[in-house]
Amino acid sequence: MTDAATDPATDPAALDRQLAEAAARFGTPAYVYATDEIEARLAHLRAHLGRWFAVSFAVKSNPNPALLDWMRGRLDYLDISSGGEFALSREAGWDAAKVSFTGPAKRDAELRPAIGAGLGELVLESLREARLADAIAAELGRVQPVLIRIAPARVPKGFGDQMAGRPSPFGIDVEDAAEILPQIAALPNLRIIGLHIYSGTQCLKPEAICENWRIFMQVFSDTCAALDLNPEKLIFGAGLGIPYHPGDSALDLAAIAAEIGPELDAFAAQFPATRLVLELGRYLVGPAGRFLTRVVSVKQSRGTRIAICDGGLNGNLAASGNFGMVLRRNYVMHRVGGDENGARPEEKQDISGPLCTSIDKLGGSVALPRLEEGDLIAIHACGAYGPTASPLHFISHPTPVEVLVTGGQMRDVTRIRDR
Question: Domains, the chain, ranges and CATH?
Fold first, then answer.
């Protein structure tokens, strides 16, 4: 581990040295993922919530194979959302039995290899999917363990994205469960081992997280009673958010544990043979990643100073405000190296990418030391939904490099390279 006095997670100067080295060695635009920070976040999560929950990582948030390989032995499970992610998890060395498979449009070509390889749990999102999986399992001579995804009737306020409480492609609406679940239970080549709910993401309000989990526990209790099911697993979609924007506060896990802990104790006592699993992605990896982009050109336009960079929305759609935001807000960012000698006073500037579209904007009126050609900018909280959520080949600029840093040692782990 890095010495505390030079830990990039706590020492801005050490972080800047690390980011500058990554840019010098591997070029820009680039993502830099710090596994020491992920490990610290995992330890923090387990310290506050590990009494009740195992941890499953949502691969869609960051499917980099080197990162998935690093996670083996550190996390309990993976959750994948496509056949491609299943292949990546297997290539990274994960046992298929530790993988669950969600997603509302699973196809025969994805289900067949996953079921054949011994997939841990198939998360069923519809009766149609259950019937398809049953037929495939029968052909393969298997009985596939399944979790049924339920969509609750409501989601508390405070979640950045809601996947229940309104018309949704995800899961079986709770009001339809009494009709559909017995039909799934009757399929001979599927074995229902539990339930799954993921109804909201990116929440920074402890009280909303607790209210959401109360909804989960009620739905789980009612559904298990109706099915006479003694579940092996119950999956709680975490919804734990991270601070992206100036003024955001980090989520207080201690407050969550203090408020919901007695109810989780009672719930766990109700299901003593059941493993409760917290499924999450961005909470673990988001703050441990930075996006590096270098200023190629600076111009004045109608009273505004604009820094035009080599990486934009093609490499980081989320930071451009085009990934789920209703109103665009700047991510936290800084100039690597800051203003060492006080020669660059802070001023408001726009940060743009290299694309021929007006939406390629990484920041508006960002207060930074005066930017000049060649400067390096680091955008924070980019460890999740980075390259995987971006139109990398739009306008055919170079795709970002991905750099993994562990214990101060860095290596190029770029998954998608230019042809």
Answer: 4-13+286-412 (2.40.37.10), 95-280 (3.20.20.10)
